[in-house]
Design goal:
single chain; 432 residues; alpha+beta; 7-stranded mixed beta sheet; 17 helices; 18 strands
Length: 432
Amino acid sequence: MSAAPPRVFIARLAGIAVFDPAGDQVGRVRDVVVALRLAPRAPRVLGLVVDVTSRRAVFLPITRVTVIEADAIIFDGRLNVRRFQKRESETLVIAEMLDRTIRFRDSGEPVSVVDVAMEPTRTRDWLVAKVAVSRRPGRALRKRGPSMIVDWDAVEGFSAVEHGQGAAGLIAAFGQMKAADLANIVHELPAKRRTEVAAALDDERLADVLEELPEDDQVEILGELGVERAADVLEAMGPDDAADLLGELPTEQRERLLTLMEPHEAAPVRRLLTYPDQSAGGLMTTDPVVVPPDATVAEALALIRRPDLNPALAAQVYVCRPPSATPTGQYLGTVHFQKLLREPPPTLVSGIVDTALDPLRPTMSLEAVAMFLATYNLVAGAVVDENGHLLGSVTIDDVLDHLLPEDWRENVMDAAAEVTADPEEEALRGTT
């Protein structure tokens, strides 16, 4: 190791860029893998888990890391791209150690793990030598009192199974991560830890993560939340995603959750559940961008600038007579965002509306919807009933989601590249 700080706190490594010797970024740090040993021997650091794409994490042996800095890690350029799979003898520091309740070996006093520090040895090994702990376990990280740093052998309890372990530290470490990437991490956690992380996420963040998970994971997590919290999370999801998830549940459980949801949140979900899955009605979202005919271009642009809006939904606005909530008043047509950008801000949308395309009907098949979007080079299309009321919008991402095999999310998350085993990695991880 040509540049090694005397001590590295591992939670601070989450998300740090990893570079090869040429200076090209190959990924970002997700976690650090250690091997626990019999007390009081400190755990040995085996390597880093590096996200090289949004859906693939690989193992980088610590012996190949040459530089660790505050904002970058450099390795020697040798990287096996076989998907990382945690072994029984290994522990992930961020995913499994943070927020654990452990005890001082001498007094038995319980403390909560805030961070773990690794230090290099003269033999170029790295060991977990220090633990940052707080005397206020189980509280959110920002509410904890001052932490203290103690030697590894001053505490015990890392190997015990802990039920109800917190997850504030793990969530803080991955706080800036996109929902799809966090979903990939949650998918790979043990079931116990997955439930703990779901319990610690706020409703909005958990809803975003659930929308990116395979259906089996969604159903499992929802079932562990308790019905009151599950109803709150369903309210935070998009109506179409909530309907897809509820459609996987038994009728009795589905109806109970719908009853617990706020009536105005449950109503569009109930409507969506009346349509077949493979139809425009079953695919659509009931929350498109709708404006009245007297709205200006400036007002329409302000609506599609919302950062939480799906990019496909932001590609166009639908002009309808009041009411603006779906099902709306008379649907008048669509204004594409490029048209909005080309017109003066005071222009009324009613003067630039596109009425040339017939809208989708809720009974149209998945294949018909896909051909419609492909034919006219659209990323979304209005769904209108026989009376001319806008019901919702079908977006290209939902069409692709249904055209792909049902288990495509699992296949992407679980796919392992056929790569020859790395002898150095296997020796380091203790299997040869």
